[in-house]
Design brief:
One of its GO terms (molecular function) is peptide-methionine (R)-S-oxide reductase activity. The chain is mostly beta strands. 10% of the residues lie in helices and 31% in strands. The protein has two helices and nine strands, in the order H-H-E-E-E-E-E-E-E-E-E. The strands form two sheets. Strands 3-4-8-7-6-5 form a six-stranded antiparallel sheet, with no helix packed on it.
């Protein structure tokens, strides 16, 4: 797959912290309830920590109490790509940044949350950077 932002692995390792690299480039997961944006209510835009692409907004963020930031829809349908993930003996849908291919988390459907899409984009805080709205 080809992305607008492509870098050699050594460059990603140099630009990202070890934790960011493990999640964004190696599809890791940060421990539940440890991410900086899990309970954030700040209004703003969440961008990819690897390339800066705008991914989600605070408008679509909701409280799912799952341990990671949850959104019911991306900022723009082109902002993320969805990939079938059959790792760890499960069938899930991986969410990646469509600009650089970095792993963000997974999306789940039909869980019954009172949201307009019945989807939960379960995203690692370490994959995101929040830019608060101007006051």
């Amino acid at each position: 797959m080809s992305y607008d932002v492509e870098k050699p692995d050594e460059q990603w390792r140099a630009e990202l912290s070890p934790g960011e690299y493990a999640v964004l480039r190696k599809a890791g997961t940060e421990p539940a309830f440890t991410g900086e944006y899990t309970d954030t209510r700040t209004k703003g835009v969440y961008s990819c920590r690897a390339c800066g692409a705008e991914l989600f907004t605070s408008t679509e963020k909701f409280e799912s109490h799952c341990g990671w930031p949850s959104f019911y829809d991306p900022k723009d349908s082109e902002a993320v790509e969805l990939i079938e993930d059959r790792s760890h003996g499960m069938s899930r849908t991986e969410v990646r940044c469509s600009r650089c291919g970095s792993h963000l988390g997974h999306v789940f459907e039909g869980e019954g949350y009172p949201t307009p899409t019945d989807q939960r984009y379960c995203i690692n805080s370490i994959s995101l950077r929040l830019t608060p709205d101007a006051a």
